[in-house]
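Exercise 7.
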Amino acid sequence: MSLYVILMGVQGAGKGLQAKLIEEHFGIPQVSTGDLFRAMRARTDDLARKVQDIMASGQLVDDDTTNAIVVDRLAQADAQNGVILDGYPRNQVQAAFLEHHLQEKGGRVNAVLLLELDLYVAFKRAFGRVSAADGASYNYYYNADGVDFNWTPAAGSEFPPRLEASLAATGEALKRRPDDASADAIIKRIDTFLETTQPLINYFEVKGIVRKINADQSIDAVWTDIQRALEAL
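Solution. The predicted structure, written as tokens, is:
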């Protein structure tokens, strides 16, 4: 049976890490619309040129074009046994299109995994996170062992202090995503999630395929719950 999974969750819920675990365990690729849009920059076919023109104009990619990009990805060899969809669908129009497309292929959306996380916790996970060159992740609020965190005042103190971090053992400077440094940007991402995701959750709950996962647990505990939910299918 093919396995088509939609992964939803507010920033900081751990979607990226859990998607990789699902990918490794079930042998299906993660499909992120953000990655698909970026990949279009290196292609020269008609669909890619259309997307490039839209992005160059500063406009949002419309539903029909987004759907076409996803269909193009689902047709690739590694996606024949299913995929993990992250960032798609973004609205009910895209959701209905996806269901119809999968039905034509003899498949269906098997589960919508909703990683639930308190919004204040989500804010702290995003605002406090930093990463090392080897991909290791740390957090000012939750995982600060072995890391030196410092709030560095701006020159003249016109701006809020800047959070800087380095590994205590090696002195390696840790990186922080630019949009994580702005509390306003994080709040806007949370607001956008609430505005766009709740209608989709309601849409899929009627179909009985939403599986709610408590994301405020250890990585292993979250993965265990996800694995059980998917294997129960």
